[in-house]
C-alpha cells in the first residue's frame, strides 16, 4: 500500500489499540474514544497514516475535534498535511506539543492557528503510590465525594462567572456525574456547599486522565486543591488505573514533586482554521 491516509472501521479496533497502547498515557483520549467504536458511534471517523502496510499514526475526528495518535512527529513527507487541508480545514486539537506543532507547522496553505492552552503533562512513577500513602492527610471539615445529579445546578453556579466558565462543557459534566468521575470538595457540615471540583476526564485500560481541578476563590490557599488531588488519585489507584494529567497551576508543583510524578512533555490545545485549497 502506498504512503496514504486511509479510513478504518470497527473491525480494525484491535489493530488501532495495539498501535496506541505503546504510548498509552499520551493517547488516553483516543483510547477512551475507541471504546465507543464498539458501539458503532456514527459520528466518529477514524483514519490511519499507512506506509507499506505499516501504521505510522492514527487520526480521530468527531465533529470539530481532531486528535492525532502518533508516537513521534510525522515526517516532512507525510500525506497528513495535505489531507488535513482538504478534509478538515477547521478543527480543535489536543495532545503532545511535539506532535501537534509539527503538524500545524507543515500545513501547506497556512491559516489562523491559535494556541488555547499550554500545560505540563505528568505521569505517575513507580514510586507515586508509595509516596501518596505517606503524604495522605485528610483535612478536617472537608469531605471529598462523588457528584450526584442533584449537584448539577450547584456545579453550574460554582463555575458561573469564573475564569473557567468558557471552558466548561455542560454535557461532559453530566456524563462525568453519571460515570461517577466528577469529585467534589464540600463542607462536612454543609454537604451542599461545594468548595472545589476535580474530574477523571478520560480512561484507557491502564490510565486515567485527570483534569477539571477548580477551587472556589473564597476557599483558595487552604489546601483544598491538594486534598482533591490526593483523594482522586487514590481512588484511581484503587481501581487499578495509573494517573496522568496536564496542569499549569504552579501552586501544586510541590505536591506533584513529592508524589514523584514525571514530566513527559507539554500538552497543548490549538484551534485551527486553514486557508482553503483552490
Walkthrough of the structure:
The chain has 278 residues and is α+β, with helices and mostly antiparallel strands. The chain has 2 domains: 4-119 and 267-274, Gcn5-related N-acetyltransferase (GNAT) (Aminopeptidase, 3-Layer(aba) Sandwich), CATH 3.40.630.30; 126-259, Gcn5-related N-acetyltransferase (GNAT) (Aminopeptidase, 3-Layer(aba) Sandwich). Helices cover 29% and strands 37% of the residues. It contains 9 helices and 12 strands. The strands form 2 sheets. Strands 5-12-6-11-10-9-8-7 form an 8-stranded mixed beta sheet, with helices on both faces. The protein has a 4-stranded antiparallel beta sheet with strand order 1-2-3-4, with helices on one face. The longest helix is centred in the C-terminal third of the chain and has 15 residues, at 224-238.
Give a topology summary.
Layout lengths: L3 E5 L4 H8 L7 H10 L6 E8 L2 E9 L2 E5 L10 H8 L2 E7 H9 L5 E14 L3 H8 L6 E5 L5 H8 L10 H9 L3 E6 L2 E14 L3 E9 L8 H15 L3 E6 L5 H6 L2 E14 L4
Parallel strand pairs: 10-11
Antiparallel strand pairs: 1-2, 2-3, 3-4, 5-12, 6-11, 6-12, 7-8, 8-9, 9-10
Helix pairs in contact: 1-2
- The secondary-structure element order is EHHEEEHEHEHEHHEEEHEHE
CATH architecture of the largest domain: 3-Layer(aba) Sandwich
- From the 3D structure, determine the CATH topology of the largest domain: Aminopeptidase
Low-confidence stretches: none
Based on the model shown, name its key terms.
278 residues, single chain, globular, 12 strands, Aminopeptidase, 2 domains
Summed up:
With 278 residues, this protein is an alpha+beta fold.
Amino acid at each position: 500500500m502506498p504512503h496514504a491516509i486511509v479510513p478504518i472501521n470497527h473491525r480494525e479496533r484491535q489493530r488501532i489499540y495495539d498501535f496506541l497502547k505503546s504510548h498509552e498515557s499520551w493517547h488516553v483520549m483516543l483510547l477512551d474514544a475507541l471504546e465507543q467504536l464498539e458501539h458503532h458511534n456514527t459520528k466518529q471517523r477514524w483514519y490511519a497514516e499507512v506506509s507499506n502496510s505499516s501504521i505510522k499514526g492514527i487520526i480521530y475526528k468527531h465533529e470539530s475535534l481532531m486528535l492525532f495518535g502518533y508516537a513521534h512527529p510525522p515526517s516532512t513527507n507525510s500525506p497528513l498535511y495535505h489531507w488535513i487541508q482538504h478534509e478538515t480545514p477547521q478543527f480543535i486539537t489536543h495532545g503532545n506539543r511535539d506532535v501537534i506543532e509539527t503538524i500545524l507547522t507543515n500545513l501547506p496553505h497556512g491559516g489562523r492557528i491559535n494556541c488555547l492552552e499550554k500545560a505540563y503533562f505528568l505521569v505517575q512513577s513507580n514510586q507515586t503510590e508509595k509516596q501518596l500513602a505517606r503524604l495522605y492527610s485528610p483535612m478536617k471539615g472537608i469531605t471529598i465525594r462523588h457528584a450526584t445529579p442533584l449537584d448539577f445546578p450547584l456545579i453550574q453556579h460554582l463555575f458561573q462567572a469564573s475564569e473557567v466558565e468558557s471552558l466548561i462543557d455542560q454535557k461532559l459534566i453530566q456524563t462525568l456525574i453519571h460515570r461517577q468521575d466528577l469529585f467534589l470538595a464540600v463542607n462536612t457540615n454543609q454537604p451542599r456547599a461545594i468548595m472545589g471540583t476535580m474530574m477523571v476526564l478520560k480512561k484507557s485500560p491502564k490510565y486515567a486522565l485527570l483534569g477539571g481541578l477548580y477551587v472556589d476563590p473564597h476557599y483558595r490557599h487552604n489546601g483544598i486543591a491538594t486534598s482533591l488531588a490526593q483523594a482522586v488519585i487514590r481512588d484511581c489507584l484503587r481501581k487499578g488505573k495509573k494517573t496522568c494529567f496536564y496542569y499549569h497551576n504552579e501552586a501544586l508543583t510541590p505536591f506533584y514533586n513529592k508524589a514523584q510524578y514525571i514530566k513527559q512533555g507539554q500538552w497543548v490545545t490549538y484551534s485551527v482554521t486553514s486557508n482553503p485549497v483552490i
